[in-house]
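One-letter codes give the sequence; backbone shape is given numerically. An example follows:

. . .
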Amino acid sequence: MTSVFATGSVADAIPLIILDPAGFDRWQEDASAEDRGMADLQKFTGALGDRALLQDGGRLRAVLIGWGEAKRRARGRFPLAAHRAHLPEASYRIAETPEDFDTLQEVTGWCLAGYSFTRYAGRPANAALLHCPKGVDAARITAMVDGITLTQDLINTPANDLGPAGLEQAVADLAERHGAALRVIRGDDLLSQHFPMIHTVGRAAAEAPRLLDLTWGDATAPKVTLVGKGVCFDTGGLNLKPGASMGLMKKDMGGAANALGLAHMIMALGLPVRLRLLIPAVENAIGAGAFRPGDILQSRKGLTVEINNTDAEGRLVLADALALADEETPDLMLCMATLTGAARVALGPDVPPFFTDQEGLAQDLAQAATAQADPLWRLPFWDPYEPMIEPGIADLDNAPAGGMAGAITAALFLRRFVENARSFAHFDLYGWTPVAKPGRAKGGAAQGIRAMLAVIEEGRWHET
């Protein structure tokens, strides 16, 4: 595990002095006239976003960071991280903070701000590295940042370099790194081993569909299963997407990428669980073998599904994977998918909804989302909408007419394939940051997985 923190002498690191307006007033009382003059010249008041470089003969000696008021900070995340790109490349340490400074969150944000995607062009991010403060678990933050970086890199990679085979390689690399076992079922073997919907969705593509099945940990430990949607590109199939809607469809494997990132965190930290990661990896393409509107598909679970829109394919491949996962009665099963536009209409790109019937798990996820600055918001498995996914001609409808409650009906569809898991939650992710923000580069996004990690570490899902 490569550390994301500065090494060497902490004493030689440049101090970051983080001040709100009241703290700045107190600082001025003891500061030298020269330092007060430099702060004044740079218009530093302690307001959120203020920054002043204190120099001595051209050498950077300290940095003042404005912390501002709580109501302004509530409008964003990781305010400290906003300064990283504007500082010279050097080693820094946190020297002074206000009372309401959340060290763990802000250090995490600073480390996340070091990400840049440079596979094809561009330059690495500014190497302004922070020494890990006392009392902060450096290994845990490093594992989280590594997992998030993996997630971002996978989503940012276009489908010509990350199709089903490329996603398989990414899982194989992760398995090798952590000593995990990997089983892969490809092509027509999906039919003989009873994964008909994964096969049907991916059979028209140049690269064969496949199911990636990674396992790690003590077989007797509590079972944690992650299921991630791995649609490496989504044309919409015969219900072809318009060009504007297809432009970002390299991110339609964002659920798989987030599941991979979380799996890395779990294994890197050696959590006492038996981990299983299931990814149906396909491309929803157009060709002679493409499935059609009006087709009725068999599923692994035995339920039949009427296809009313081939662009609602993610729930089909997830259904077979969820059915497999459910067969071994996991203690906790988490499903991640870039599933519906309805979720984005409801909550926007920053706040993914999640669905669960377990009240304790819902409370734990909500609390962890706040504590980790990794937002999630619960939407209901609304039972009165169940008839909307029952077409009559088959057991289930993959795309109910009318477009109402699209995120909920998709979640209800998935829930039909989960009966045995002791705790289950589904996350409808966007997987993309449209505009760069502190600690969050534009492009592929990890969403909710730091909160999920905290819940898995806490372990109450296993006790209930």
About this structure: The longest strand covers residues 274-284.
